[in-house]
Amino acid sequence: MLVHYVTAAADIVLAAPNPAPVAPPGLEAAGNMFLGWLKWVLILGGVAGLFICGIMMTVGRRNRSSFAADGAAGIPWVLGGLTLGAVGAVIVGAVLPG
Q1: 61 belongs to a structural domain
Q2: pTM of the model
Q3: N vs C: which end of the chain shows fewer Cβ within 10 Å?
Q4: What are the pLDDT digits (tens) for 37-84?
Q5: Residue 56 lies in domain
Q6: How many domains are there within the chain?
Q7: Nearest to 82 by CA among 52, 32, 56, 47
């Protein structure tokens, strides 16, 4: 008897409408422009981060091995941030399918 009620409740919940996301009128272009700016900042920050890591490794080559190691340790963080930014839309699309 309880299984019947649980099944009926599940059918009601699963039958709920799930509309696709739609941008408000007039905001789609502004939203795309804003996301484009964020992507540009991400690329600029990634290039700057890799440059800084390279400079740290170059400067720390002689008698400053910990400085060079910090530069080398920063590379995976920069690449991880770039990767997360690159696949951000895919991750959000997987969590909130539309």
Answers
A1: yes
A2: 0.70
A3: N
A4: 999 999 999 999 999 999 999 998 888 888 899 999 999 999 999 999
A5: 30-87
A6: 1
A7: 47
- Answer whether residue 52 is part of any domain: yes
d(Cα 22, Cα 26) in Å, to the nearest integer?
A: 11
Structural tokens at position 4: 């019947």
* Long-range contacts of 38-42, Cβ-Cβ distance < 8 Å, separation of 24 or more: 39/85, 42/81, 42/82, 42/85
Contact between residue 67 and residue 56 where contact means Cβ atoms under 8 Å apart: yes
Contact 72, 57 (CB under 8 A): yes
Question: Residue 82 gets which letter from DSSP?
Answer: H
What confidence tens digit (pLDDT) does each residue in 4-33 have? 777 877 777 676 666 777 888 988 899 899
